[in-house]
Design goal:
39% of the residues lie in helices and 22% in strands. 33% of the residues are buried. The chain starts with a strand and ends with a strand. It contains four helices and five strands. The chain has a five-stranded parallel sheet with strand order 4-3-2-1-5. It is an alpha/beta fold.
């Protein structure tokens, strides 16, 4: 199955659970793409805590060949020109992800 996930939160628990789900889905043989939108593009800046090892979950997701993309406009709103963890994307790419996915999930 192809999962398209939109993460639009910068809350540590939301980010952590998004990537936890993505890892679980990849381990079951699914295709998973996560699009970081709105505050979700800040995921790379959220520090790990004892409860939420965000950087480890992101790396595990990437190691399992999950795809992460960050909204170019959302980055610009935050005075960023790029993401440290993934390539940037546009609305056209988001539309394509939605068209090609079997299921769309929104976290945040």
């Amino acid at each position: 199955m192809k999962f398209g996930i939109i993460l639009q939160s910068n809350k540590p628990e939301h980010i952590w659970n998004t990537f936890r789900f993505g890892v679980a889905a990849l381990k079951e043989g699914n295709f998973v793409q996560i699009n970081l939108m709105n505050e979700g593009v800040e995921a790379e800046d959220i520090p790990d805590t004892d409860q939420f090892d965000i950087s480890k979950k992101i790396q595990e997701f990437k190691d399992l060949k999950g795809i992460i993309l960050a909204c170019e406009t959302c980055l610009k709103v935050r005075s960023k020109s790029e993401s440290k963890i993934c390539p940037i994307t546009t609305m056209k790419d988001l539309v394509k992800m939605i068209e090609e996915s079997d299921k769309i999930l929104v976290f945040g």
